[in-house]
Structures are given as structure tokens and as C-alpha cells.
User: What shape does this take?
Amino acid sequence: MSLEPTFPERRVLLRCALSFVGKSSRLIRSKLAAGPRVRLKDDGSPVTDADLAAERLLRRLIVRRFPDHGIQGEEFPPVRPRAEFQWFVDPIDGTMSFTREIPLFGTIVALHHLGRPLLGVIDHPALQETTSAAAGLGAFRNGRRITVSSGNALKNELVAVCYRDQFLRCRRQAAFDRLMRSHPNVRTYGDCFGHILAARGAVGAMVDVDINPWDLAATQVIIEEAGGKYVVLARRGKRRDILFGKPKVVDRLLPILK
Amino acid sequence: MSLEPTFPERRVLLRCALSFVGKSSRLIRSKLAAGPRVRLKDDGSPVTDADLAAERLLRRLIVRRFPDHGIQGEEFPPVRPRAEFQWFVDPIDGTMSFTREIPLFGTIVALHHLGRPLLGVIDHPALQETTSAAAGLGAFRNGRRITVSSGNALKNELVAVCYRDQFLRCRRQAAFDRLMRSHPNVRTYGDCFGHILAARGAVGAMVDVDINPWDLAATQVIIEEAGGKYVVLARRGKRRDILFGKPKVVDRLLPILK
Assistant: This one.
């Protein structure tokens, strides 16, 4: 088919995605309890046996249920890259946190149809917090509806930002320093932990730069279904700089980051 | 008595502190589940019904068990400030996080004897992680021994720092900016969350500035019992700037922060 999935079809797809992530979440918690085993990849970035095992599990679950869909992820080559349905998986976003038992790492699973985000799930195994959305069906945290204004009445809006080394990598450190100086409450809630905080209004907005397709694949649909604004600030190959959150906060931050 | 408590006496005192904190932890989790209720204090800082209820509970438990000890805390006046044993309590360190349901807030309980730290407990109710130490008896995370070198083999040492607005408050923002620029992996793991990460070696060191007596009362004994180095960078009235963690990392950061 090349028609967009109907709402009932999306509900089924989201239920499947949540079930896949529920299984990877249990696997990751058990790996965490056993103590993470780390090695460095050729590019110097760390990978753990939990990354590999969880991505293998997610790919197996997807292929078994949706044999004609494509899959893209960090640790293994793409599967059926021309299929109209493409899954994106990042088993452990925030490997540096995971290896240090800092419980802010998360799992990202998303499904795009003909290049458009259809659904997204961001799961935080150690926090037992699952954020999800499907286009047209709203955004949810552990099954309860969320919006970017859930924390609207709060004074002293927080802003989340990824780590300075990501800005350094793409030579945008001046923007990081400007942001830090221009807003009193900027916090480095990096990786997909910041993404879910923006979706439920715990922070007013987040800036995340130089990130891979699988690390942003779930975010746009979650933010937009939560009533937020999602802006691509820059593209470098497949990498993106993004800004998202409450529309007013996003608009206020745009000139600082451009 | 004015003799230092013996090791068996310290064990009893620590067991009491852990039991008090276990009770406040359950109370705080139930308040979190019910949704935090926030109001602003006269100085503009937020306070919640959970802050007040948990501090009242902790004070009641301490007074009942140790009627001749003193107590100091954020929300109520000091009790018996000249007693040789002084308890310090902060029921919710990280109220901004608590009100946003960001699970990184913690409870601090410490006991000092004649001005010297005897024991410290830092509990993270939402993470169900309790860090504790008593002088001469070691440091523990959920009952298991920790050291600042628990994560020693890790490449890419992380450094934790409190929020920039704390540096602004005491006009030390230049030190914050210098630290951010001088080290690629600085993260704002603020409040007592950063303290426990340093104690178990998840970060190499932490800098925390302009903090109250009750917010640092548990940290020195925990860090030192974990084999770490604890340095007071500056004193302003009862407020302190502190730096602590792995001795080598502390020494490397000292010139940046002085």
C-alpha cells in the first residue's frame, strides 16, 4: 500500500512498537543490573553488550511482525532501505550515561511512512517512563496524555541543551555559550531524556545538535502531537540540529541559535 | 557526652538515619504520584507541600529518637542550635526538578558531632537510590560499598557542575564559563544528584557553588569515605562553594575554578 495508514492501523502499529520496546526495556534493565560491559568502537565511541543485544532484539521483533518493512539503526547495516515503511531504532541513546549507571539513557523506536513520521516511542528503562505518540492520535507518558504545556503554570522556565562536545563537533560552540549566557536556567539534559522533558512541559524547549537520523526519528511526532513546535536548525548530511518545545519558547530561542 | 561516638554507636546512628530517610522517601514518592503542589516563598524560591511535610516528618522522627540533639533545615527554625549533635535536613534538594517531575531531586540528612561530619545520607526517592556513609565505616549505595573510582576504567571523564544561575548569584559566572570551555564533558548534574554521581565515580568530580549548610552537610563524609577529595573553594556567610571527587580530577580542576 502507499496510502497513509488509517487511525485504527496506526493504533495497531503503535501497540506493536510499545510491545517491542517493553521487551527491550526489560532486557536493558537486566543488563544494567548485571553491570554494563563497555568497549570502544573504531570511531572511539563506546558500545556495550546491552546496545548490541537490545538492537538485535528490536530488529528481530520488527522483522518477524513486519517482514516487508525497512529498519535503520546505529549498530547494524540498514535493512530494505527502499521500503515505504522505515523503522528507526536506537537501543541506548546516551551510552555514556548507561555505562556510568546514570539512569537518563533511553531507547528510541520510530516508524516513518514514505519519509513522514508516523509514530515514535522513547523509553527510559531505568526510570520506567515511556513516552509515545502517533500522528493524529496524541502524545502519551506511561499511557496518560501529555502536552508541552503540562507544566505551563511554572515560573522560571527551564531550557534543555545537549552537551557542549556535540556543539564543538559541528563548530557551533559559540551558539552553546550564547545560550548559556542568555538564559538563567539552561540545563544539559542531553540525549532523548531532554526530548521527553520538552514533550511534557518539564522544560520549555530543548536544543539538540549534530544528531543521527535514529536519534531524532521519534521526536518530531511526539513534540507535534504534544502541541509543540519542532524546527530543524541545520542539516549536515544525515545529521540535524533541532530545536523543539513550547512554541513561544522556541520562537524566543531561535535568534540566539541561528 | 563529648567523646566521639564509637564505631558501634555510629552504626546505630546511621541505621536510624536510614530508617528516617526510608520513611520520608515513601512520603515524597506518594506526593510525587499525587502531583506536586507548588507555591513561591517570600524570597521567590518555590516550596511544595511535599517539602514541608517531609521536613516535618524528619524532624519529628529525629526529636522522638534523639530529644537532646539539634536540628537545622531549610523550612523551619533551628532546634537546640548549641547541642553537640546537630542534624541537618533538606527534604527536597532540587525543588525545581521535583515540581517538574524530573526525577533527580533528593533528600539530604546528615549528623555532625561538635562541628565534624559524622554521617550523611542522600536519598533519591524517584530513583530509589540511597547513598550513605559514616566516618570510618565506608560509603554505600543501596547497601553496596562504593568508591570514587568505581567507574575508574572509563574513558572520557565527565565533570558535573551545578546550574549557571548559582554561579551568577555569587558573581562567579566567569568560572562556570571557563569550566565549560576547558573540559569537553561538563554536565549540569545539579543538586545532590551530582554529589552521589561523584561518590560512586560516575563523574570524575563535581563543582557546586553558593550552597546552604544543609545542602552540603552529607557530602564531605560521603566523598571522603568513598576515597575522594573534598575542597572548600569559598565561604560566604554560611554558604560554601565546594569541589569534590577523584583526587586527580579535583586537582586538575582547582586552577580553573580559583
Residues 33 and 95 of chain B are 15 Å apart (CA to CA).
